[in-house]
Amino acid sequence: MKRHAYLVTAYDNQYQLEQLLSLLDDDRNDVYLQSDANGSLQLDQLAMRHPRVIFLPPMRVCWAAFSMIRAELGLLRRAVPGQYHYYHLLSGADLPLVSQDVIHAYLEHSTEEYIDIDPEYKDFAHFKAGYYHFFMDFPSYRKNRWLHALRHGLVKLQMLVGMDRSRKSKESFYHGSTWFSITHSFAQYILEQEPWILQTFRFGLSCDEVFLQTLVMKSPFREHLHDPRQGMTGNLRYIDWRRRDGNSPYTFRMADWDELVQVGDKAFFARKFSRAVDSDIVDALVAKLSSQAAEAP
Known about the structure:
By secondary structure, this protein is α/β, with parallel strands linked by helices. The protein has helices at 14-24, 43-49, 67-79, 100-107, 122-130, 145-161, 184-192, 194-201, 211-217, 257-262, 275-295; strands at residues 4-10, 29-35, 53-55, 86-91, 94-96, 181-183, 237-239, 269-271.
């Protein structure tokens, strides 16, 4: 039996997180949870209801900052000794679209790395990682317009004087979705490259969407990247940016039920969902997959 590790980052929405954890509860899985210390999750209650979940100490995670990469590395560092077949990074706003039987059967003999890479965003990737974006890890950054203005001004100054942090290394940056499903070999490789990750992406802007893509494209694992032209999406996720809400993807609603059912043969997970926006779609998906799990032999 090949085992999988689910690496989950979560901030709030306790009941929705419990629903997600219930769908991942399988003898073939271990779940590692990294909670945001700024959030509202009650970990003691989660631990009582989900004793098989491995809880990492809460850490402060700031949106678009390097702390997001630290959270991912921490989850991998904790899980990799388990030598899992695949490692899946999810957020508390994600849900599976198919059963664990489907996921395990599809990946049983796979050696591919499921990472989303969008070549059209290379310039954006360079903007995020090629310049120093200070203050991102300040807790007050998101609400402080003066820090926003100062960061933008300092980036423009770097561009004006040609202060490109990748000029010496000639690094070529790539962009894509944060969320991934990767093999044990590549997970180990990521941790081996942690000093390079720190040096290259600290003080970057949303480099959780850049570091993994850049790393895999300069590594031998590039040859094992899943080609989305084969049918499945590049990272096995369905995320709707066409109906985006600012910097966030579209939040699915019950009206999208048929769309989500149909995309199940191209993606195993979808994001994002919110009970505050539409609890019916969350409950319907959970009920469907729970029923399938109960009927499995």
